[in-house]
Amino acid sequence: MSPTPFTRTDIQALRDALDTLVTTQGSPGGIVVCGTSAGQRHTITAGVVAPECGDAPPTEHTAYDAASLTKVVATWPLIGRALDTRLLDLDTPVGAYLPPITGDAPGADATIRQLLTHTGGLRAETRLDRYRGDPTPLAELLCREPLDEPPGRHRYLNRGFILLGLALAHIHRRPLHELATELWTDLGMTDTTYGPVTRNPHVAPTEQRLTGAPRIWGGVHDDNAALLGGTASHAGTFTTANDLAGYAEHLLDPEHPLHTWLTTSRTPHAPVEPGLDRGLAWLVADDGNVVYHHGWTGTSLYLAPTTGRYVTICTNAVYHGPPSPRLAPLRTLARKTLTTT
User: Residue 13: inside a domain, yes or no?
Assistant: First the structure.
């Protein structure tokens, strides 16, 4: 079945929502790409990259800190590849894929599936700064901490994805950044990389943590990812609207290997709220017809496998502080637009 193209009304509505985000100081600027698996793309821009970067608007090649989009742009596809080659099994505890852990380690009993679906019961708070100076391997430190609750209930957290990244590095005997770079090269995502990246007008700055202090610019916004050197399985990726659009086209292509993994991953596993479930990494909405994921800094990726449509959002909305409420109208519209025919 041919994908459903976006109408002029769809595109104008997204343009208006992005303009409103910028004019109400929800973000210095941003770029939205809406397209289909057939390669049709419509690019919408507003504002500037940031005042520090001059008057030029963002482009499809402006690099944004993807934050938690890293989970579905790096870790999730790498897990899919490892499953295909039988290096991993979804229902095996993650401890089987980590270096041997001594003593009681309840976190090691969480399965790969539970970590992907945020249902492992692991401690929600992840403060890697508390491990400073401890020579114990990170996987062991994370797994030794007691669970917050028995496995089963959905609670979004980063700890599980950090363990997934450590498991990927261990089973491949290669660092995560090498695995991810190889993946992105294969997918043609030539602008996507782990930080830090060099400050320049084509890299969107994020937050100013202290008045008078330099703004975060080219470095990862997430504190735990920064402590891991910028390479982490829950955050740390810098990407562009162009690369996200190309990635979406691959995922929606029935002939691409990752399409099968996406089909498996959009089966609901745990309720999040009425009408919204967690699949394998992705949020699943509209009876499985839409899957999506957000990044705290102001990024989103929406996919509609049944219509062959996608919407990517790249902003640095965290530039002005916590971004989620300001981004909500644009994100809600992006989701709605995917299922409008």
Answer: yes
- Tell me if 281 sits within 8 A of 265, measured CB to CB: yes
Q: Side-chain half-sphere of 62: how many Cα atoms within 13 Å? A: 30
pLDDT at 227: 95
List the beta bridge partners of residue 314.
31, 299
Same domain, 184 and 306: yes
**With b meaning 16 or more CB within 10 Å and e meaning fewer, what string describes 140-152?**
bbbbbbeeeeeee
Q: Note whether 65 and 195 are within 8 A (CB).
A: yes
Residue 340 clears pLDDT 80, i.e. is over it: no
What token pair was written down for 184? 């992105």
The CATH number of whichever domain residue 284 belongs to comes to 3.40.710.10
Backbone angles phi, psi at 310, to 5 degrees: -150, 160
* List of E strands, the chain: 29-36, 41-47, 64-65, 193-194, 237-239, 270-273, 276-278, 283-285, 290-295, 299-304, 309-315
